[in-house]
Structures are given as structure tokens and as C-alpha cells.
Amino acid sequence: MLSPEEIKFYKDNGYLVVEQVLSQDEVEDLRRVTDEFVEQSRNVTEHNDVYDLEPDHSPETPRVRRIKQPSLQHPVYDRTLRHPGILEIVSQLIGQEIRYQNTKLNLKSPKIGSPVQWHQDWSFYPHTNDDILAVGVAIDDMTLDNGCLLIVPGSHRGPIHDHHQDGVFIGAVTDAQFSDSEIVPVTIAAGGISIHHVRTLHASRQNTSAHARRLLLLELAAVDAWPLLGCGDFEQFNGRILQGQPTNLPRVEKVPVRIPEPKHERQGSIYEVQTKLRRAGV
Predict the structure, then answer these.
(1) Residue 201 needs a FRET pair 20 to 30 A away by CA distance; which of 16, 79, 150, 260 works?
(2) Would the pTM count as exceeding 0.70?
(3) Angle subtended at Cα 216 by Cα 210 and Cα 218, rounded to the nearest 5 degrees
(4) Predicted confidence (pLDDT) per residue in 69-102, tens digit
């Protein structure tokens, strides 16, 4: 359970770190399965429905930068998505009724590990309310050297920055006024979790260390938060409920919105979407 001080910190700053949520055995299971996926990627030559590859990926030196929808790929990832300790913590922040939006596993190989430019998750999927967050499950220690999450504290209470360039959505902040001078590195020991609000500005740098950085990301929302771009198949939408009951009565709140349209021709993961960014990023 979170303390009142931790809940206030999250509400004030838009992020939180909770250490020792997973056991050592649970962490080892995640490492083992992730190693298996990377090993299997030797037979993959281009991005597909499971893998997003680093530019220098090869059969001899497999380098994966993302495993897509891991909770659908292996029971160990799905079990982590439904981890009672994680859900108990999240319930204190967005309520007891929880749906997952998506899952992904971002990997940063030693001395490489692609960076992620500054962005707000909300820019990709605006909803009727913003009781939405991302949980980052640390499979490895997250350090400044290996490309830990970077946060602008309090930015979830500010504007939704423009993520468009030349009239198309590129998934990265392009506002000239934006400054990354006030950032906080979110360091975590393996087995801990980070939590960041859907509107919090965040990024990550390249891994400059000799150690891997693997982070399982769980995008979670209140059940009554409905995507403004549509929910897709209603049965599948409700099938993503982890706790609570379906509803067709979305809770609508006054929240700032920019629609992520139109899209450019390079689609896929955030790495592909951000390739068009001309502004130098981290």
C-alpha cells in the first residue's frame, strides 16, 4: 500500500518510484523469458508484430529495442501485468476499476540502446479523462548511465505540447518553448516499479554503460476512461479489463487534447514514429 505522502508526491509531480514490488524469482523469470525472445530474434531480419529491432541487429549480434505486446506473447509477461502488488498500488492512484491500454518491453543493449525523444503518452491516445498511467517494471537496475527514464516533474499539470512537425504527427515534442532543463532521472533497482502520469513529459537517453536496461511497460487506465479515437472492437476492449466491470458511460472531464493526426508514412513503434523529428533530442 502507498502512504499518503507517496500518493501526494505522485499527484504533485506526476511520477513515483516504488521499490521491491516483485520478488527476485519473479525478476529472474522475466529475465529468462526476455533472453529467450532476444535469442529467437536471430531469425528475424525486419520489424514484425513481435519485434522492433535496433538498426544494427543481425543474426550474429541480435539487438532488440522492443518486444511488442509482451503480455500476449508469454504467460510470464501476462502474469506481471496482473501482479496483485502492482494492481493494488495502481488502484490507489486511478481507482479500483482498471483496464490495460497496451503493454511493451523496451530494451537498451549495452553501449547502444536507442533513445526515446521527449513526449507525453497522452499525445498518442487522448481519452475522456486522464486517470491513466504507465507502470515501468524494472527487469534490470535503471541507472542514468544505462538510459533510465527522465521526467519533467509537475508537467502533467501543464499543457499538452505539440507533437506535430510539417503538419503531421511525429510523436515527439516540437514546441519551441519546451525546455528540458528541469529533469529528474528515475532510477530504480531491479524488481521495483516506476509510475508516470499519462500527461507527464518523459524521455530516455542512449545506454552508455556495459549493462543492459530492460523495462516492461504497462499502460493502465480507469475503466471509465474512453479513448477519443475509438475503442475498436467492444468485446476486445472489455477483455482488457483487469479489475471491475464494463461500462458504456465514459467519465468526461475537462482535459486538454491534441489529436495525433494526420500521421506520416513511417509507422510502428515510437522509435519509427519519431524518425522524422529534426529537433535534436536526448
Answers:
(1) 79
(2) yes
(3) 155
(4) 999 999 999 999 999 999 999 999 999 999 999 9
Count of CB atoms situated within 10 Å of the CB of 48: 12
C-alpha–C-alpha distance, residues 65 and 197, integer Å: 23
Residues in the chain, overall count: 282
Instruction: Give helix then strand counts, H and E, for the chain.
Output: 7, 14
262-269: which pairs have CB atoms within 8 A and are 24 or more residues apart? 262/167, 262/168, 262/169, 263/168, 263/169, 264/168, 264/169, 264/170, 268/47, 268/52, 269/47, 269/52, 269/65, 269/66, 269/68, 269/104
Mean pLDDT of the chain: 94
In terms of CATH architecture, what is 4-276?
Sandwich (2.60)
Report the 10 Å Cβ neighbour count for 226. Answer: 21
Neighbours of 243 (CB within 10 A): 16
